[in-house]
Write a structure and sequence with these properties.
Length: 217
């Protein structure tokens, strides 16, 4: 807004001609649109699975999601991918897109996405997950994570989780465990409230009840 006002003032002062002012305003508009696109958050994908086999891939440079199998459709500003008993499906989405999971008795593989939601009686494998906010009941999670900033969470109940933090991760790990086993290995530093990797820019809070948790960095 300030730039536009200054351009108009320069026209009134005779420093710029109207044609020159139009050219500058066009350049300014293009620059602002570019900044807006850089700050865009990919639309949410809601994944609903019951008794299904699903693979979700975050693909760099992909413009829009595409899917094979199941039901895939627009939902608000995001998308819905739904699979039922015995169905198999694959979903390709822009890298880093948020995926909200609602799953029961399913097997899921996910890579390079930010995972949230809840899973009951599921087996999940994650490859280079870029975010985590998950509740897992009576299931298994094996995941490699790359967490650099923000707040994340994992709530385990009668579940097993093996977490591997990939090079470049920078976080504080907070663990609240009841009737659970905990193993922490690797280049961690004990810190108030948990374990620190790097400077602790991101925070992952894990709550475990009657569960097994293994953490490696």
């Amino acid at each position: 807004m300030e730039d536009r006002r200054r351009i108009l003032e320069m026209v009134q002062e005779g420093v710029l001609s109207p044609e020159e002012a139009l050219e500058l305003l066009a350049v300014l508009e293009d620059r602002e649109e570019g900044r807006a696109e850089e700050g865009l958050t990919p639309p949410l994908v809601r994944l609903v699975a019951q008794g299904a086999e699903v693979r979700v891939v975050g693909e760099k440079g992909l413009a829009s999601p595409r899917a094979e199998g199941g039901e895939f459709r627009q939902e608000g500003e995001g998308h819905l991918f739904r699979l039922g008993v015995g169905e198999e499906g694959r979903l390709w989405i822009p890298e880093g897109s948020p995926v909200h999971l609602e799953a029961k008795a399913s097997n899921l593989e996910l890579s390079r996405v930010a995972l949230s939601g809840q899973a009951h009686g599921c087996n999940l494998e994650g490859e280079e997950l870029l975010g985590l906010d998950l509740r897992l009941v009576a299931g298994n999670l094996e995941a490699g994570l790359l967490l650099k900033e923000g707040r994340h969470g994992l709530d385990l109940k009668a579940a097993n989780a093996e977490l591997r933090f990939l090079p470049g991760s920078d976080l504080l790990l907070e663990v609240e465990a009841r009737l659970s086993s905990l193993e922490v290995e690797g280049a961690w530093t004990r810190a108030p409230g948990g374990y620190r990797l790097g400077e602790g820019r991101a925070v992952l809070r894990v709550r475990a009840f009657a569960s097994n948790l293994e953490v490696e960095a």
